[in-house]
Design brief:
The chain is α/β, with parallel strands linked by helices and 400 residues long. The chain folds into two domains: 32 residues, no CATH class; 361 residues, Alpha-Beta Barrel (TIM Barrel). Strands 1, 2, 3, 4, 7, 8, 9, 10, 11, 12 and 13 form an eleven-stranded mixed beta sheet that branches. β7 and β8 form a beta hairpin. α5 packs across α6, α7 packs parallel to α9 and α8 packs across α9. The chain is globular. The relative contact order is 0.13.
Length: 400
Amino acid sequence: MDSVKYCMAAAALCLLLGTGSAFAQRQADANRKKYDVAAYLYPAYASDDVRLRPFWPMGIGEWETVMTMQQRNPGHYWDRKPLWGYINEADPAVMSMEIEQATAHGVNVFIFDWYWYDGRPFMETTLDNGFLKAGNVGKMQFYLMWANHDVLNHWDTRLARVNESNVIWTGKVDRDEFEKICRRNIEKYFKHPQYYKIDGKPLFMVYDLPQLIAGLGGVAQAADALKWFKKEVKKAGFPGLELQFAMWSINLNYSGFDGGKTENPENDFIHTLGFTGTTHYQFAHFANVDQDYTAILEQVRNEWERIDATYDFTYYPHISVGWDNSPRTGHSAVVKNNTPENFAKGLRMAREYVDAHPDRAPLITINSWNEWTETSYLMPCNVFGYGYLEAVRKVFVDME
């Protein structure tokens, strides 16, 4: 009799838990699924990069903009402070701590904003001296987003209101410079065991296509240069190159491309250049960010649906924490109500998008790990504590 009661109880428990049902199988599959949660990392929070000093003379990188906000704008509503302090992210011990915190909360890839100005790299110390020398670097992957935009006056808060569009350095490079950059990145970064790859192919992202095209001399010349880049990656022993671009209007509506003979010129433009995938860098690139976060998420959902219906290149979903760049300029459009709870809603949207596209790499991008001066960061602060990191953990580790 006891055995009968036991079996009945076990059956009831199985029914309650859904064991043996399609529901239980879905839950088990979800719990096993791995997501590549990639946060952009802005490498300006370093204390040992002499090339940062002209913009931030205190010697702590763009932490200076964060630290002096109230001094420059007394009584301004923006008053954020990092709970970890004004850390030097180019210090391997500091970066080791960040890797621990990131991976513990479900962020397993850093996308390093990567720069090249005046014939040489810029802001590489956080990657080279911090991340790559961290004792636990094996826990985390990384890839590069070439931030090939111009450097304007607004980087320097002393010049923020003085001819903001003045170009200090241009992001354009010619073919010789382009080849130098590519060869260097293949050898120095693509071959690193922690470099992020899709099907064995290193992933490399370009931020500004008009800048790339202008520097190389036109669409045909840019397409030829990128084709050469792919060949060089194969020569280095990889099966190919995953070439990604930042999805926003300037990268699709290029006036120099003749799309008169096609029904989808934007799609053909991207294929002509040879890009295979895309993601966003920031909600501000396509949405009205001067409103409530939940309203922005509706725009995001609509944008993803539009992309799926319009293009045949691969899109990887993106979620931004927020937007407010008043620390740099004193004024800004501002995302409202971007609480950790609402941010988690966006992350669940991204998870659902990935689950609905099982033929693609499970890559989700987040802006960002540390864009403090744009108020879009995961790092803990005086306002939300560890809330944003906890939101990532709940969605991608605990699978809530």
